[in-house]
Each structure stands twice: as structure tokens, then as C-alpha cells.
Design goal:
Radius of gyration: 28 Å
Structural class: alpha+beta
Helix content: 25-40%
Distance between the termini: 66 Å
Number of helices: 16
Strand order of the largest sheet: 1-5-6-11-10-9-7-8
Largest sheet: 8 strands, mixed
């Protein structure tokens, strides 16, 4: 008896091991179509504005991210999946798309193309973050980027396109949190002032923020520690330290937003979590409303990264701006429209086959319908008429196409109207013509 119980326990433990890795999950059924529908909508909007597709490898050389994203960031310090190959290469699962895109820009000589070059990309990224509701270790992002222009209108363009994508997915009450963190001409002065300010409050900073004071003081502005957030309220703001060129650039971006009636708030503590940002940084947020006490939900974020090219090993700076949408967060939002991908069309016909001879020829009949772009549903593994009709009724499909042994011999099919159970026998060579007449 004890041996049987032990065997059952071992089988149960073995079955429990067959799960996806922590923080990762299978995407299937309606959820899969929700993701695909969002991507098609985002792609449609992006293409309209002139963005072209690119897909970079899921694996990149580790240095692309450590040199670009920078020390003192959560991604580099704690969240990257890295490994060494048998050949001794140090690779990383991409934690974001931007570094890989800039590497592709340099590698393929895109600086010799008419500028700017504008891309969209979509796919999974990987971060060893603490899993929680709506946050995964394999997450999906949709990115838009314009490389090769320092013009302020490009900043406004990516913000506008991001707003359009989210609104057409169902988001309402969107606004933009925006800031400018300057460039190499003026940022050093700001960082010195910020560092001096935090040193005065060092005893009130948590362990993580004290470490950031040495490696990346800007990241303290993005701290989640309650005490640090109180200190940040009186921290020096970057806008006060902007040089004339950065002030002009930021002023122009805001003017574009105002002209497009995009609501925005200047957030002096907004720096974004990556070290490569310069000048404009922004987040597109969903205002929760006064009746809801929860903080605004960030749906997308990005900014300008004019020095990233040189940071990852390029010979010169490349002005660039872009943003990323957190697709998992959009898909799980109550307002998401559950956009259907184009391949999903409600079936007009349910295909029923009866008998070995009919089953043998069934795939040829289905292919005729496919080539005519007539959506169908079927259960080819079923054999009885009753079971197949029951599925058609459950799916509420208006017509069934019955293909039995007699029809296989006569090269015909039976079309039954499920609303009144009337039916016609139609020769295969007249089938498409007949179906076109159906309402």
C-alpha cells in the first residue's frame, strides 16, 4: 500500500514539473489572437506614417546592452539573461529592442541611406524581473524608432503615432508625461548639482539609491522607495540646466504637442530607466480618473538617444528617437478592443464530410473554398452527421456544406440553410457561383 502511495506521489511531483519557466507563459486561443490583432493594428498605423519593418535577433552580444543601457540600471545590474557560448562568446537575451536596432543601423550602413530611417519592430524581450500581475519575464513590446534626424518634429511624430495606436486599440484619457534631461553640453552640470543634493540627504536614502549615487544619480529620480520619492520632490530639475539648444528643442516638441491637442505634463523627475536617453524623455499614460485612487498606468515610454551609437562602438553619434509599447499591459487592460487579426473571419460555411470516399476528397474541396477566400469551419476527425451538425449549430454558422459518399461519386455537394433547413444539391463546378449568391 505504501509503495503504491509513493509511486502516485512521484508521478504527481513529475507532472507538476511540466510547467513553463517562472514568469513566462503559453499564449494561445483568444489571447493569441488578441496579441496578433494588436500587432496588426499597430503595424497598420506605423506603415501609414512611413515606418518600415525590421526584426532583430533575440540574442545579441552582451556588450550591446551593457555599454548602451549602462551601469546603475536595473536591466544591466539585475535583469539580463546572459550566458557564455561554447565558442566563448558572451550573449544576452535581448532585454529591449533599441540597442539591437542601433547595431543593425551601423552594421548595414544605414547612415548612407536618406535620413531619417524609420522602423517598427515587434516581439518578445526578456527581463529577470520579479513576476507579478501583468509583468512577465518574457514580455512583448512594439517599438517605433526614427534614426538619423535631430529635428524636434521627429520626437513629436513618434509620440503622435504611439497615441494613435493606443487610442485605436481602445485606450481613453491618454496624456503624456514629458521631460528633457539635456545633452552632453549641459547635462554634466545638472548631474553635479543633483549629486550634491543627494549627498546632503544620503542618510535618508535606501541601500539601492545610495549605490546609484555613485554609479548613476539620475536613476534615483526614478526610485520606488517612499522616502526617496519625498526627497525627490525638492530635487533640482533638469530643465533649469538646459543649454540654449536643448531649451529650443524641448520648446518645439511641446509646441507640436499643443498644436495636436495632446495633453501633456512636464514631469521634472522623469528620466526613464535607461542610460542612453538624451534630451526628450516621455511616457504615454492612462489617467485613471478622480474616482480611482490608483496611480496613472504607463502604457508606453521612450525618448531621444542621440549618443547610443557611439556608446555601443559606432564611430560617430547618430541622432535618434523612439518609444516602446508594453503590449502585455495593453492586452490585459479592460478597455482593450480585442482586435481580431485579419486571418480570423467568421465562418459562413460549416463543412461536413460523411464516409471514407468523401473524407478522402475533403481536403481538395476545402482548398477550392480557401482559394476563393470563403471562410469555413470543419471537424474532419468526426465521422457522424449528428456530431458535425451539432458543432455547426453551436457555432451558429448559417450554412452547412454536406459532402457524402453519393456526392463524392457525383462530384456534387449539398448546401443546407440552417435557419430553415432547406437544402440544394450543387455540382462542384457551380459551387463557387452558388455560394456567391448566398446572403
Amino acid at each position: 500500500m505504501k509503495k503504491k502511495q509513493k509511486t502516485k506521489k512521484m508521478k504527481k511531483e513529475k507532472a507538476q514539473e511540466l510547467v513553463s519557466p517562472k514568469g513566462m507563459r503559453d499564449i494561445m486561443n483568444e489571447e493569441y489572437y488578441n496579441f496578433q490583432g494588436f500587432f496588426e493594428k499597430a503595424q497598420e498605423v506605423a506603415v501609414y506614417y512611413g515606418f518600415k519593418p525590421i526584426e532583430t535577433p533575440i540574442l545579441e552580444n552582451e556588450e550591446i546592452f551593457t555599454s548602451g543601457i549602462g551601469a546603475g540600471t536595473d536591466i544591466v545590474d539585475k535583469e539580463m539573461y546572459t550566458f557564455r557560448t561554447k565558442g566563448g562568446d558572451h550573449l544576452a537575451l535581448r532585454p529591449e529592442h533599441t540597442g539591437a536596432l542601433m547595431r543593425a543601423y551601423i552594421e548595414h550602413g544605414m547612415q548612407n541611406m536618406p535620413q531619417p530611417v524609420m522602423f517598427y519592430q515587434y516581439g518578445p524581450v526578456f527581463r529577470h524581473d520579479k513576476p507579478q500581475r501583468g509583468r512577465y519575464r518574457q514580455l512583448w513590446q512594439f517599438d517605433l524608432d526614427a534614426l538619423g534626424s535631430e529635428k524636434s518634429i521627429m520626437d513629436a511624430l513618434v509620440i503622435k503615432v504611439g497615441m494613435n495606436i493606443l487610442e485605436e486599440a481602445g485606450a481613453e484619457n491618454l496624456s503624456v508625461n514629458i521631460n528633457s534631461i539635456g545633452d552632453k553640453e549641459c547635462r554634466n552640470g545638472y548631474i553635479r548639482e543633483l549629486t550634491n543634493y543627494y549627498r546632503k540627504h544620503v542618510n535618508s536614502l535606501g541601500i539601492v539609491d545610495r549605490a546609484r549615487l555613485k554609479t548613476n544619480p539620475l536613476r534615483i529620480l526614478d526610485s520606488k522607495e517612499e522616502k526617496t520619492q519625498e526627497i525627490n520632490e525638492n530635487a533640482p530639475d533638469s530643465i533649469s540646466f538646459l543649454c540654449a539648444s536643448c531649451k529650443k528643442h524641448f520648446k518645439e516638441v511641446l509646441e507640436y504637442l499643443e498644436e495636436m491637442d495632446i495633453n501633456y505634463t512636464i514631469n521634472k523627475n522623469l528620466v526613464r530607466g535607461l542610460s542612453y536617453y538624451t534630451r526628450t524623455v516621455f511616457e504615454i499614460i492612462e489617467e485613471q480618473g478622480e474616482e480611482k485612487k490608483s496611480v496613472p498606468l504607463s502604457l508606453a515610454g521612450g525618448g531621444r538617444y542621440d549618443y547610443l551609437a557611439r556608446q555601443i562602438g559606432g564611430k560617430k553619434d547618430v541622432p535618434a528617437v523612439g518609444f516602446s509599447i508594453g503590449v502585455d499591459r495593453v492586452i490585459s487592460a479592460p478597455w482593450y478592443k480585442k482586435l481580431s487579426p485579419r486571418i480570423i473571419k467568421k465562418p459562413k460555411i460549416y463543412f461536413i464530410q460523411l464516409g471514407a470516399e468523401a473524407k478522402l476528397k475533403s481536403l481538395n474541396i476545402i482548398d477550392i473554398l480557401r482559394k476563393a477566400h470563403i471562410p469555413i469551419a470543419q471537424a474532419l476527425s468526426k465521422d457522424s452527421l449528428g456530431s458535425q451538425l451539432a458543432i455547426a449549430e453551436k457555432l451558429n454558422i448559417p450554412y452547412v456544406l454536406i459532402f457524402g459518399v453519393k456526392e463524392a461519386i457525383d462530384n456534387s455537394v449539398i448546401i443546407r440553410d440552417m435557419s430553415n433547413h432547406s437544402q440544394d444539391t450543387v455540382k462542384l463546378n457551380k459551387l463557387l457561383e452558388y455560394l456567391k449568391e448566398l446572403k
